[in-house]
Design brief:
The chain is of the alpha/beta class. It has twelve helices and eight strands. Helix 3 (about 70-90) packs parallel to helix 4 and helix 4 (about 105-120) packs parallel to helix 5 (about 150-160). The protein is globular, with a radius of gyration of 19 Å. About 45% of the residues are buried. It binds manganese (II) ion.
Length: about 325
C-alpha cells in the first residue's frame, strides 16, 4: 500500500542515545545508533521503498521518564523537542512530531506540551510509561499518570485536543521480581506489554475518562495485550453481584472503545490484527513499524499483504491517523 502513515517511529539525541544500548547485542549497536540518529538518509529511503508517506517521530525510551532530576528532565525534553522540530521543518511533507514530556513535574509537562503544539506544530505527545522523580520517593517510586497530581495535566491535554501515546518502558528492579533469573522476559518479549497494559488499565479504572471523556490515548504493539483480555477484565466472577471496586463509572470496554487507539508497531501478525479489529473496530487501529527497533520492511511487507479488506487496509494504513492527528 502506498501513502502509509506510521506513528511509533523513534529517534534519539546524543543525550538519550545510550538508553537504547541494552536492547540489542553489542554487535548490533553500531547499526542501531545509526538508525536512531538518522532522520533524512536511511529512514527516508526505507519510507520511499515501502510506501510510507509520513512518519510521526518520537524520542527513544525511557529517556526523559527515567531522569530523576526534574530540571534535567525538563531541559532534555525541551532540547529533544527543539531538535525534532528543526528536523521536521526540513521535510514537513514526510515528518511530524510527538512531544517528549517531563512528567516528573506535571505543570512543566503541561507547559511543554502547550509550547510544542502551539509554537512547534507537534501533533501530540509520546511518553515512555511511568516517570521517576527525585522529589517524589527519591526517584525509586514509579509515578503513574492516574495519580491525582496528574489530573490538571490531563485537563490541559483535553484542552489542547491532541492524542497521548503511552509507550512502554521496563519496570524498576524492585517491581520486576517476577522476572528475576529470566531477563529474556524483560523488554519487548513480555515486560513492556505487562507494564504498559497495567498503566492503561489504571488510567481507565481511575475515572480519568469520566472527568475528561474527550481524551484519546494511543497504545502500540497491537494494544499491549488488552484486546485479547478486555472481555475478561469486565466479566470476571460475573455471578458475584457486587458493585465495581474502581472509581470509574463505566465498563473498561467502553473506555477502550471510546478513548483508546492502537498501532501495529512491532506486532506484525494478522491473527492478532483480526482480534483487534473485532474488539476495537478498524477505525481505531493504525499502522506503525517501531523503527529502528523493528524493520520497516518487516512491518510494511506484512501489512501490505495481510488478509484484511482493502477498505480496512486504507483506514489502518493511512486515513485513521490522518483524521486523528488532523494531518490533511
Ligand atoms: Mn517503540
Amino acid at each position: 500500500m502506498q501513502g502509509k502513515i506510521a506513528l511509533e517511529e523513534h529517534f534519539a539525541i546524543p543525550d538519550t542515545l545510550q538508553d537504547s544500548a541494552g536492547f540489542v547485542p553489542g554487535a548490533y549497536w553500531d547499526e542501531l545508533q545509526h538508525r536512531l540518529l538518522d532522520i533524512h538518509d536511511t529512514r527516508l529511503k526505507l519510507m520511499d521503498a515501502h510506501g510510507i508517506d509520513l512518519m510521526i517521530l518520537s524520542l527513544n525510551a525511557p529517556a526523559v521518564q527515567a531522569i530523576t532530576d526534574r530540571e534535567t528532565a525538563i531541559d532534555i525534553a525541551r532540547r529533544a523537542n527543539d531538535t525534532l522540530a528543526e528536523e521536521c521543518a526540513r521535510r514537513p511533507d514526510r515528518f511530524r512530531a510527538f512531544a517528549a514530556l517531563p512528567m516528573q513535574d506535571p505543570d512543566a509537562a503541561a507547559r511543554e506540551l502547550d509550547r510544542c503544539v502551539k509554537e512547534l506544530g507537534f501533533v501530540g505527545a509520546l511518553v515512555n510509561g511511568f516517570s521517576q522523580d527525585s522529589l517524589q520517593g527519591d526517584g525509586e517510586t514509579p509515578l503513574y499518570y492516574d495519580l491525582p497530581q496528574y489530573r490538571p495535566f490531563w485537563g490541559e491535554v483535553a484542552k489542547l485536543d491532541v492524542p497521548f501515546y503511552l509507550h512502554p518502558r521496563n519496570p524498576l528492579p524492585q517491581d520486576a521480581r517476577i522476572y528475576e533469573g529470566h531477563p529474556w522476559l524483560l523488554g519487548p518479549t513480555w515486560a513492556f506489554a505487562q507494564e504498559t497494559a497495567v498503566h492503561a488499565l489504571r488510567l481507565m479504572g481511575s475515572g480519568l475518562f469520566d472527568e475528561h471523556p474527550s481524551l484519546q490515548i494511543v497504545l502500540g504493539h497491537m494494544g499491549e495485550g488488552i484486546p485479547y483480555m478486555i472481555w475478561r477484565i469486565d466479566h470476571r466472577n460475573a455471578w458475584v453481584k457486587l458493585p465495581p471496586k474502581h472509581p470509574a463509572k463505566r465498563k473498561f470496554a467502553d473506555y477502550f472503545n471510546e478513548n483508546f487507539h492502537i498501532t501495529t508497531s512491532g506486532n506484525f501478525r494478522t491473527q492478532t490484527l483480526i482480534d483487534a479489529i473485532l474488539e476495537l473496530g478498524a477505525d481505531r487501529i493504525m499502522f506503525s513499524t517501531d523503527w529502528p527497533f523493528e524493520n520497516v520492511d518487516h512491518a510494511a511487507d506484512w501489512f501490505d499483504a495481510a488478509s484484511v479488506s482493502e477498505a480496512d487496509r486504507i483506514k489502518i494504513g493511512r486515513t485513521n491517523a490522518s483524521r486523528l492527528f488532523k494531518l490533511e
